[in-house]
Amino acid sequence: MALLDFDGDYGRTYNARIRRLIPAYDAIFELAAATAAALQPQAQRVLVVGAGTGTELPALLEALPQATFTLVEPSEQMRGFCSDLLAGIGATARVAWGPDHLDAAAHRAFEVVISHNVMHVLAPAAQEQLLRQMAAHVAPGGCLLLSSYSESGPPGLDLGLAIGRTRFAALGMDSATIEAVMASRNSKVFSMDAERLEQQLTKAGLEPPIQLLQALFNHLWLSRRLVRECEGGADA
Ligand SMILES: C[S@@+](CC[C@H](N)C(=O)[O-])C[C@H]1O[C@@H](n2cnc3c(N)ncnc32)[C@H](O)[C@@H]1O
Fold first, then answer.
1. Per residue of the chain (236 residues), what is the pLDDT tens digit?
2. Measured in angstroms, how far is the CA atom of residue 198 from the centroid of ligand 1?
3. How far does residue 52's CA lie from ligand 1's centre (Å)?
4. Nearest CA residue ID for atom 23, ligand 1
5. Residue nearest to atom 26 of ligand 1 (CA)
6. Cys-Cys crosslink for 46: which of 58, 67, 98, 180, Cβ 3.0 to 4.6 Å?
7. Ligand 1: which atom is nearest the Cα of residue 55?
């Protein structure tokens, strides 16, 4: 199976496999939803980028009961799974599909922008472009919640890879798949460098990201846009 082929077998079997691949997958969603509710309990507009099969959505819909959600997801197969999930929980009316890809215009219309597990499927230049695009959509006083694989900081590469490999085996992943996943580093899965993340977000007028959670290489960050930016500060 081709890794990260979201319109092929990888996407078809995504829900069954992803918790082996991403440590603390559900904990990241739970914490992001709680953070969004703590900061923006009355949010009206939420943007979810790379919604995939929609697993993060039920907790978010519950956490932000007044919000309508705009979803961005380029894979038709993933959009189909997500639509099925939304229909199953009776949430279709609260959700609209946005464009397949975000544009860079500074809409600043969303109190909450969320993207889980998308940055690391993009090469560094595309990561930076998507970061700029997402930041441009965060309203004054709003927040960006972002989770991604990142090799920045402890535990360090060798120790982290050794633990990751052992974890995969302990969870029953076969050795061919373990080797394929390991080989995907820097070819299909890319670290989100924490320094570049901070540079891009602060350049776009957001506060430096706060790390809310780390599970091995997986991180959840929060970054907020000040209610009022200094004149001559971040561009639109
Ligand atoms: C690893 S999945 C994450 C799905 C879901 N957010 C989750 O955490 O389970 C990455 C998703 O990002 C989507 N994606 C890839 N490139 C994207 C882009 N430039 N903008 C938005 N979504 C993108 C893929 O189609 C895929 O559904």
1. 788 999 999 999 999 999 999 999 999 999 999 999 999 999 999 999 999 999 999 999 999 999 999 999 999 999 999 999 999 999 999 999 999 888 867 788 999 999 999 999 999 999 999 999 999 999 999 999 999 999 999 999 999 999 999 999 999 999 999 999 999 999 999 999 999 999 999 999 999 999 999 999 999 999 999 987 654 444 43
2. 21
3. 5
4. 50
5. 52
6. 67
7. 9
Distance CA 116, CA 84 (A): 19
What are the domain boundaries of the chain?
A: 9-224
| Cα R_g (the chain), whole angstroms | 17
Fold of 9-224: Rossmann fold (3.40.50)
Q: List, in order, residues 6 or more apart from 43 with CB less than 8 Å away.
A: 36, 64, 66, 67, 111, 112, 142
Tokens matching residue 170: 């302990």
